[in-house]
Amino acid sequence: MTPAGEFREPASDGRRKTPFGVRLGRTAIIVAFMAAGLAVAALALWFALILIPVAFAAGLVAWAAFRFHLWRNGAALRR
Prior knowledge:
The chain is mainly alpha-helical. The chain contains one helix and no strands. The longest helix is centred in the middle third of the chain and has 59 residues, at 20-78. The chain is rod-shaped, with a radius of gyration of 35 Å. The N and C termini lie far apart (112 Å).
């Protein structure tokens, strides 16, 4: 405070230092977004890995249906 009763501006080098709480909050938000992105990626990978046996089973069913139709059509042509 000056003798005239006014407050002085703090001396700075042109940059104001952000408070610790703001920096901590900003870092926490960034970490939270990164964790959410990692969780979404893990969920997508889990879903893709679950679909592998389903696709394999669908392929087996399609192959069996194709062989069944070949067998049926072949039997009908031999009569």
